[in-house]
Amino acid sequence: MSKQESHDQKLIPFIPEGDFYFSKGVEAYRKKKFDISLKWFGKAIEAKPNNPLYQCQMSIVYTEIGSYHLANQLLEDVLASHGEEYVDCYYLLANNCAHLGLLQDAKAYAQTYVEEAPDGDFSEEANSLLTVLSIDEEEEQEDEWAFDKEDDILMYQETVFYHLDREEWTKALALLEEMIAIFPDFSQARHEYAYALYFAGEKEEAIALEEEYVHHHPDALFGIMNLAIFYYYQEDSDKLEPITNTLVNIYPMHEQQKLRLAMTLSQIGFVEEAYQRYQSLSKDIVKNHASFYRWYSACCYGLGKIERAYQIWEEGCRKHDILSKQTPPWLMSSTFYHG
Fold it and tell me: What Pfam families does the record tag this protein with (predicted)?
């Protein structure tokens, strides 16, 4: 046997385990390369799904990029299985809830942390947070201070969007009903309500609501986009055609409207027009939207860009756990892109 053959037989293949991926994730996090960090932590969790340390660190990255709901989901999972060992999760949850404007939840989590770990690593931060929350509460009681209307709307929108993006229609509907009651002039809540209602199974009611609204407000872009989606899935080409002729000639200025229009065009099979819209979107706007990855990948697939479609879908699955549990949209229905 030659020396090279002998050397080759002694080689032991290196198969990365969870700790290796975790260390790479920490390294990327320290360099503030958060997208790369999330990829490594995702691989670490795949290797060791029940390791709470990996989940906690991944939640911290989500907090850094403003994905507070995704961070909280991970932290709640850790508490459910390792609550007594990972009390720091209570402070991290409190911090995230404070950012979301869920102040009562933030206060409850911070108080639990202080009770469970009075000398813990985050005890000073938790007590400071409680002090700030108490001041806010006192001001509200003494001066009848309340959030500015716009802040209230933004807080609701953040939570509603979270449920819509995850296709949790019933939860979204409950919040949207509250929004409509509190902010009757905020028209977007009505459109989101109709959208959620349709996919919750109340199709006729959703269509009737949106048709009535658009009849009185013919320039309502969100209403027109909703009707395009509804008519597409109802296979009502007579009503769909004049709407699509309108949509393909609209170029909104607002980034959120651009994104919604691109996803609508994808969803109704106008993939060439949708693809052009996706190319002009700001990356900062789309990165926290699971629905962006869902419909952009579908758009690419419809254009025959199969490899690109799978790349976008896989990227979305790495960033949004909900997508990793779903089937790519082009495999969900044999009638996808029948138009």
Answer: TPR_16 (PF13432), TPR_19 (PF14559)
